[in-house]
Amino acid sequence: MSADCFSSLRLYSWRYNSKLAGAAAAVAIADLWSLCKAWVLAQVQTRERIGASVEEPKKLQLYSYWRSSCSWRVRIALHLKGLKYEYKAVNLVKGEQFSPEFSNLNPIGYVPVLVDGDIVISDSFAILMYLEEKYPQNPLLPHDLQKKAINYQAASIVSSSIQPLQNLAKYIEEKVSPDEKVPWVQFHIGKGFTALEKLLNGYAGRYATGEEVFLADLFLAPQISAAISRFKVDMTQFPLLSRLNDAYNKLSAFQDTMPEKQPDAPVEYKG
Amino acid sequence: MEDSLELVPVARFVESSGDGLKYEYKAVNLVKGEQFSPAFSNLNPMGYVPVLVDGDIIISDSFAILMYLEERYPQNPLLPHDLQKKAINYQAASIVSSSIQPLQNLAVLKYIEEKVSPDEKIPWVQFHIGKGFTALEKLLNGYAGRYATGDEVFLADLFLAPQISAAISRFNVDMTQFPLLSRLNDAYNELSAFQDAMPEKQPDYPVVSKG
């Protein structure tokens, strides 16, 4: 409350104490009420003036590469949560992640990167956890602690046991032999997929950990898609993951966000 | 993150941290293949350590365990409230668990040694640790205080401490290129939470090697 209001309070209080008539007290209280109403009205009008000049909140920006599985995970989350964003393509093949502009944003040179006002976050997992906390609609994690843990475990298997080793394909091709590349990738994907089949056994429903899409699905969908389309993994050995893949193929959150539909997908890949 | 022969699961650090959670240590000898025993396979068909058992709840993977502990036992939080700082913690954890650790584990090193060359093993591991450490130095710049993201120990420190320790003691990485991580390592060496949890102090550390 403003100083004016309090000085009036003290004044009226003194005036009330020095007068014995109840009528004088009633008038004092009525005057005080008018003063306070005027103060409140002034606050509201001020706030309305401020509100009219506030800019629209800045849109989310996602720095992404069309083929990056990590970027795809985040695109799915943004779709599920109904969050609009500006797509900022970073061509990893051309080395755009090392440009001065991108390095300023993310000195580590990784995609995806999410920009939300002053907040800048790289790493798909960190971005997903941020989105989950800042925009809790359509939660990416179940409440149940065991199921939540299963989601984290599935995410870890993909991001630590499969994806980093799959990314070494080029090194293996050059340093070991071109013939070794495919067996290497298929071995590590196979090992991870076998682990996932065991992990999700008893938890999977329509999706990885039940009837709703959660974090695990965001990691699985791009990984399974890459395994099939890029690395020709024989999915008959993985019946649960095959079934999940069929389910993902029916969801717009996954289909609309797929690599081939991104603005920077080369023309020859565009779906 | 699974360990093939790592004897320092990250979870051990949190178990001994200020959380003050007592636990029963159940040794699983990875060299002897005990992760494939019927008893352990029943518990965790994937054969990974660490595994945490809390009543009916069974969780493997150090990151999943840490997130469970954080939610179930919120005392001495492992994550800051600030969303940007929280994200930095997750990013640091990811760099260690996805960009460094999988490439330095024994199975991969054995493959490099056999299929590329025995001389390639050390440069390989130092390259990947160096790349990850360079990324961490950049990531934590402006956020680090006494510890990785301020003056309290958080998730990032739980991933950094074992990784830096392994880089120094197992892989002879030259830490002078990484001044921030070197300073953090000194800070970790002063904390009982980290010192009491180190591999050499665990019940299953081989007697012959104990100092």
Describe it for me?
The complex is a heterodimer of chains A (271) and B (211). With 271 residues, chain A is of the alpha+beta class. Chain A is 58% helix and 7% strand. Chain A has a four-stranded mixed beta sheet with strand order 2-1-3-4, with helices on one face. In chain A, helix 3 links the parallel strand 1 and strand 2 (85-89). In chain A, helix 3 (69-80) packs parallel to helix 5 (124-134) and helix 6 (145-166) runs antiparallel to helix 8 (178-200). The longest helix of chain A has 32 residues, at 22-53. The radius of gyration of chain A is 29 Å and the shape is globular. Chain B has 211 residues and is mainly α. Chain B folds into two domains: 2-76, Glutaredoxin; 83-195, Glutathione S-transferase Yfyf (Class Pi), Chain A, domain 2 (Up-down Bundle), CATH 1.20.1050.10. Chain B has nine helices and two strands. In chain B, helix 7 (155-169) crosses helix 8 (179-188). The longest helix of chain B has 22 residues, at 83-104. The radius of gyration of chain B is 17 Å and the shape is globular. Residues 1-18 of chain B have low confidence and may be disordered. Chain A binds chain B through residues 107-108, 110, 118-123, 125-127, 129-130, 133-134, 145-146, 148-150, 152-153, 156-157, 159-161, 163-165, 168, 175-176, 180, 195, 198-199, 201, and chain B through 1-2, 45-46, 48, 56-61, 63-65, 67-68, 71-72, 83-84, 86-88, 90-91, 94-95, 97-99, 101-103, 108, 115-116, 120, 135, 138-139, 141. Chain B: This is Glutathione transferase. Chain B: One of its GO terms (molecular function) is glutathione transferase activity. Chain B: Residues 20-77 form the GST N-terminal domain. Chain B: Pfam families: GST_N_3.
